[in-house]
Give the backbone structure.
Amino acid sequence: MIQTYYTLMRYIILFFSFLFLAEPNAWAQHKGSKGPDISGIKTQFLAIDAKRKSYTQYTTPTQEAGMAFIGFYEGKSLKMLNCNYYQDLGQTEADHYYSGNTVILVYSKDSEYEESIKTNPRTKLKNTTENWYYFNKETLIKWVSGAKVIDSSSEAFKAKQVAFTKEFSANKKRFADQSTLLKIK
C-alpha cells in the first residue's frame, strides 16, 4: 500500500514537473548570466520521459540491501535508470536520464519520515525535497534544490559531483556493461 502511494505521488510530481518544464517562462529563473543554458538538456529529458512506457525494462537480478534499480532501454541503449535508496527514516528516488550512454540529468526526490518505517510502516511523511542535477559529459553543471540554485563553487556542489562520479561508474557496471546488454531483449 505504501509503495502504491509513493508510485502515485511520483507520477503526480512528474506530471507537474512536466507542466513546469513545458512552460518556457518558468525557466527564466534558471537561465541567463547566472549559469549554463540547460534548454537542450530539458528538451532531451522531455523526449526520453515521454517514451518511458515504450522502453524495455531490466532489473538487476541481485539487488543490494536498501537499493533497487530498473534500467530503461531503447534497443541496447540505456535511456533512463530509476534508482531507489531506502533508509530507516527516509527514501530517495532518483531518475537518471541518458543520452549516448552519458548522464544528462538526474531528478531526485528525497523523502523523510516522521518515525522509523521499520517500527511504524504507516508513519507520515515529514519532508520532501526535489533536486534537479544537470550534466555536460557527466560533469555537474547546475543543481536546483527546491526553488534554489546551488552555487557551483560551493563545497556541497563539489562534493555532489564527486558522489555522482562514483555512482555513475557503479551504475555503468550494473546497466551498461556487455553482459547486461546481452540480456536486454
Q: What stands out?
A: The CA atoms of residues 103 and 138 lie 6 Å apart. The chain is about 30% helix and 35% strand. The radius of gyration is 17 Å.
